[in-house]
């Protein structure tokens, strides 16, 4: 895990990064997974892609990018910041 500055994982950015790029990202930054990232990922499981991709394979590919990379899951929500 990096001692660099914290950086929130964005689902769209993680889909664009290769697995090697995701590893380098966590080499320089401390990855933080927000609850919305998890909710969006779970929403993708129910999604039907027009090009016929399997939704579970899409989510699994993204999970492999963040798995074991020293990420932190936060439970902070907008209501707790008020």
Notable traits:
4 helices, 82 residues, three-stranded parallel β-sheet, mainly alpha, 11% strand
How would you describe this protein?
The protein is globular, with a radius of gyration of 14 Å. The protein has one domain (about 5-75). It is about 50% helix and about 10% strand. The chain is built from 4 helices and 3 strands; from the N terminus they run βααβααβ. Strands 1-2-3 form a 3-stranded parallel β-sheet. The mean pLDDT is about 75. The chain is mostly helical. It has helices at about 10-15, 20-30, 35-45, 55-65, and strands at about 5-10, 30-35, 70-75.
Class derived from helix and strand content: mainly alpha
Distance between the termini: 30 Å
Radius of gyration: 14 Å
Largest sheet: 3 strands, parallel
The count of strands amounts to 3
General form: globular
Helix % is 40-55%
Strand content: 5-15%
SSE order: EHHEHHE
- Unreliable parts: none
Overall average residue pLDDT: 77
How are the strands of the biggest sheet laid out side by side?
Answer: 1-2-3
Count of discrete domains: 1
Q: Tell me the number of helical segments per DSSP (H or I, 4 or more residues long).
A: 4
In short:
The protein has 82 residues and is mostly helical. The chain has four helices and three strands; from the N terminus they run E-H-H-E-H-H-E.
Q: How is this fold's topology laid out?
A:
Elements: E1 6-8, H1 11-16, H2 19-28, E2 30-33, H3 35-46, H4 55-66, E3 72-73
Parallel strand pairs: 1-2, 2-3
Helix pairs in contact: 3-4
């Amino acid at each position: 895990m990096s001692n660099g500055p914290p950086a929130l994982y964005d689902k769209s950015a993680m889909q664009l990064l290769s697995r090697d790029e995701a590893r380098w990202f966590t080499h320089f930054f401390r990855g933080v997974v927000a609850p919305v990232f998890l909710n969006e990922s779970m929403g993708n499981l129910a999604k039907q892609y027009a090009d016929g991709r399997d939704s579970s394979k899409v989510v699994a590919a993204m999970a492999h990018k963040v798995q074991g990379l020293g990420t932190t899951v936060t439970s902070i929500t907008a209501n707790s910041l008020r």
